[in-house]
Design goal:
The structure holds three protein chains of three kinds.
Chain A: H1 2-29, H2 35-40, H3 42-74, H4 78-93, H5 96-107, H6 114-119, H7 128-153, H8 156-165, H9 169-198, H10 201-206, H11 217-227, H12 229-259
Chain B: E1 2-11, E2 14-23, E3 27-31, H1 38-46, E4 53-58, E5 61-65, E6 70-71, E7 79-82, H2 94-104, H3 109-122, H4 138-151, E8 156-160, H5 168-184, E9 188-192, H6 196-202, E10 205-208
Helix pairs in contact in B: 2-3, 2-4, 3-4
Chain C: H1 19-57, H2 60-63, E1 67-68, E2 79-80, H3 83-114, H4 117-130, H5 135-161, H6 178-202, H7 206-214, H8 219-248, H9 251-256, H10 275-283, H11 288-322
Antiparallel strand pairs in C: 1-2
Helix pairs in contact in C: 1-11, 3-6, 3-8, 4-6, 5-6, 6-8, 7-8, 8-11, 10-11
The chains are: A mainly alpha, B alpha/beta, C mainly alpha.
Chain lengths: 260, 210, 323
């Protein structure tokens, strides 16, 4: 038995290194002496702010639409639930490029609704809203699935009790269900945010990589690859640090509250 | 003024026929074997289970009558209920749990602050106010649940095994506290219990379900 | 307790939902409907915009490996097909799955049953963290770090195994090959497959494992006889999810696989591509007609991933029924 545990742990450690080595390898190759250039670089700075802005808005939109959707899914009959769940899961495996190109086909200038939208003065492609829309499309399922899973495991008796106490479904949702689900909502939001920050395929097709307008960090890295490898790697490393800082701080706060 | 139920509950293979009148001031011990429908009766009065046919009238107001297309949502009935599983919000303190019930009845913030303390004190749980209910013992949690059930000043009180699963000492104490509460309660009390001592000391009459 | 001078007045009783409640219910239902409609529209729009391509090339669009716009003014001179890209998508995704699944299984079992509490927390956090790393970063790493390594390994594989057709190449020059892209994809999908596997194994009936323990079996015996059979279909579902991911990957494949419009089954040869990277690559300077072709390619990829996802759901559901 010792031996199986041993060999299993060896494989597990190899697997974990496979996950971590790319990140460490990146950090080793980063030309740290040029990190000053990175902070001085206009491309990097604007991309950072655009990424921060769009990913936060996208996360907010995901929360606003995703939480009601998750609650709806947690409350329907099991047959309808499995249908809805299958549909919501599609974007998880939907290649982001396909999502982006579909958005373009729908609301692009030459798209199905393109004329309609431009006639009322709305142009979506190659705008910052397009970046947000792409991120929402890609990130939403992660939030919905995380929160819905929690809603289903919730003690339904507490909801019943709140109704008998005199709460309408709406008040019960805001006063009881949401406060009880706080950790799951935060975890889902972190996941959605992470997806939004890293989003590339959908935004590059639907929003393009216009410096100062729609170019987010991943797109900036991609562009830098062509003319400045070192800077691209430096920017990648900074992105990892940025994401790690946000996720680990939120996670540790979560663990603390759930332990208390 | 009273509570009257004439009708039938049907859920799958399970049916429960009821033909009962209860009067205000009565403490009715609901007894019977497992699966006889004791909890179902309580859920029916609370509005969590609906009648298949017949009618449920609380203090003159028809709350459930499928033939007349009447069904009053649970929140619009005046019920205080202590569930078998208690169903407190584990992340909240005892005081916050009781306060939720006051909030549900739209009691103002200032009044809530005063009332939640006195409600807890009334069931001998004043010292638990700031503790999270997740960390309470069985008996402590039952006190908090009782305070919460009373908070909304209900017309009907439903107690589903309020003294179960606690040790003999605290059971004795809680029974005394519950006795005081019940003698003052103006409306109908339905009390589900298996314990002869509880029924003897608390109830004014018995309802047998088979 | 109730006294007449109590500050809580008896409530008035209303029988119906307030307007706010109805609005809330409507909103909840609408948001559900919205996502459903969006997904149907994705397929519908792609079909609508790509229809001309399917009617021009028919089945050849999927089997043909040539991508030539011909005279941009005259669409009838164009020959467009994504055969090579589809083959590339499938080959790289399969390499990824074959490499990733055993590692994911072992890690999941280790985290769930052997790791001490502290390590478990750390490892779960790591799995979460890597989800946030954009694929372009993996792509860079694959190009800078993994490429020279895989070139070495490819040399060795070719030297000893070139009698197996897939390890054969015309000229022993390796580089951005399907093997490199596949291995990189394996690393990229490892976290998600591990997460799914961990979740599945976590649901295995503990009492049965304990029972096997109590009968004198080892922990490993419990895992082998209870957990593994229990989690088999769940794991297949997780692997399918990873497969879908790998097939849809864009930028990492673009950076580590030489885009060549030639059907290539030799995993060491520096040629290939996948549908997603084709779209991202050709998209920028595409003519109107080529853009339609890219949308048609998007639809094909969408349908393939849907199929994979559907199979995964069926397999996972069947496992639930048995248990």
């Amino acid at each position: 038995m010792r031996r199986t545990a041993g060999s299993l742990s060896v494989i597990a450690y190899v697997a974990m290194s496979m996950v971590l080595i790319p990140i460490m390898g990146l950090f080793i190759r980063v030309p740290w002496t040029r990190i000053g250039d990175l902070f001085a670089s206009d491309t990097a700075r604007t991309a950072f702010w655009i990424s921060l802005q769009t990913s936060l808005i996208a996360t907010a939109v995901c929360l606003l639409l995703g939480i009601p959707l998750a609650w709806f899914m947690a409350n329907v009959s099991s047959r309808l639930h499995s249908v809805l769940r299958a549909i919501v899961t599609i974007p998880v495996v939907l290649p982001p490029v396909v999502g982006g190109i579909a958005l373009l086909a729908a609301v692009g200038r030459r798209g199905v609704f393109g004329d309609l939208l431009s006639s009322i003065g709305i142009t979506l492609p190659y705008t910052r809203s397009a970046v947000v829309l792409s991120q929402v499309l890609v990130a939403m399922p992660f939030l919905v699935l995380a929160v819905e899973n929690h809603f289903r495991q919730l003690d339904r008796g507490v909801v019943d009790a709140s109704r008998v106490m005199g709460m309408s479904p709406l008040r019960s949702f805001f006063l009881v269900v949401l406060p009880m689900s706080w950790p799951a909502v935060v975890a889902g939001a972190v996941l959605a945010w992470a997806r939004s920050v890293g989003e590339f395929g959908a935004s590059i097709t639907f929003a393009g990589s216009l410096r100062g307008r729609t170019q987010t960090l991943p797109m900036a890295v991609y562009e830098l690859l062509e003319n400045d490898w070192e800077l691209a790697m430096g920017l990648s490393a900074l992105m990892v640090v940025f994401a790690a800082a946000v996720i680990l701080s939120l996670r540790s706060r979560l663990l603390n509250t759930s332990a208390a | 003024m009273s509570l009257s139920i004439h009708g039938r509950v049907q859920r799958g293979n399970f049916t429960l026929d009821l033909n009962e009148e209860f009067h205000n001031g009565e403490v009715v011990a609901v007894v019977g074997p497992n699966g006889a429908g004791k909890s179902t009766l309580l859920h029916l009065v609370a509005g969590l289970v609906r009648l298949h046919e017949g009618s449920l009238v609380v203090n003159g107001m028809t709350c459930d009558a499928p033939e007349q297309d009447v069904y009053v949502q649970p929140e619009n009935r005046s019920i205080g209920m202590m569930f078998q599983g208690l169903h407190l919000v584990p992340q909240f303190s005892s005081a916050k749990n009781v306060e939720l019930a006051l909030q549900a009845r739209k009691v103002s913030r200032a009044q809530r602050a005063a009332l939640r303390g006195s409600l807890l004190a009334q069931v001998g749980a004043g010292h638990l106010a700031d503790r999270k209910t997740a960390g309470l013992s069985g008996g402590e949690a039952q006190r908090v649940a009782l305070a919460r059930a009373l908070a909304g000043q209900p017309q009907v009180l439903l107690l589903d095994e309020p003294l179960s699963a606690i040790d003999a000492d605290s059971r004795e104490q809680l029974r005394l506290a519950l006795g005081n509460v019940l003698t003052d309660f103006p409306g109908v009390v339905l009390l589900v219990s298996h314990d002869p001592t509880d029924i003897e000391s608390l109830a004014t009459r018995r309802l047998n379900l088979y | 307790m109730q006294t007449t001078d109590s500050p809580v007045a008896p409530r008035e009783v209303h029988t119906y939902y307030t307007r706010v409640d109805r609005v809330f219910r409507g909103f909840v239902a609408a948001s559900a409907l919205f996502s459903l409609v969006v997904l149907m529209l994705i397929a519908a729009f792609l079909l609508y915009r790509g229809f001309e391509i399917f009617s021009d090339f028919g089945f050849g669009f999927i089997t043909n490996s040539k991508w030539d716009i011909g005279n941009p003014e005259d669409t009838s001179t164009a020959v467009l097909g994504i055969g090579a890209m589809l083959v590339g998508s499938v080959i790289t995704a399969f390499i990824a799955i074959i490499v990733a699944v055993p590692f994911a299984m072992a890690s999941a079992l280790f985290i769930e049953f052997y790791a001490p509490r502290f390590l478990r927390t750390v490892l779960t956090a790591v799995l979460d963290l890597v989800a946030a790393i954009p694929s372009v970063i993996y792509g860079i790493w694959g190009y800078v770090v993994l490429l020279p390594l895989v070139e070495d390994w490819s040399g060795t594989l070719y030297k000893y195994l070139n009698w197996i057709p897939i390890f054969d190449v015309q000229t022993p020059i390796f580089g951005r090959s399907p093997l490199l892209a596949g291995l990189l994809l394996a690393i990229m999908i490892l976290p998600i497959v591990t997460s799914v596997a961990r979740e599945v194994y976590g649901q295995a009936p503990r009492d049965l494992i304990d029972a096997s323990y109590a009968l004198g079996g080892t922990k490993w015996a419990g895992i082998r006889t209870v957990v593994l059979p229990f989690g088999k279909s769940g794991l297949v579902g997780g692997a399918m999810l990873g497969l879908g991911r790998a097939m849809g990957e864009t930028v990492a494949v673009y950076l580590t696989l030489n885009l060549v419009f030639k059907t290539n089954f030799q995993i060491l040869a520096s040629a290939g591509g996948n549908v997603a990277s084709l779209i991202a690559n050709k998209f920028g300077e595409a003519t109107a007609y080529e853009l339609k072709a890219l949308m048609a390619a998007g639809l094909v990829l969408f349908l393939v991933t849907l199929l994979v996802n559907f199979l995964a759901t069926v397999i996972v559901n069947r496992s639930r029924k048995i248990v």
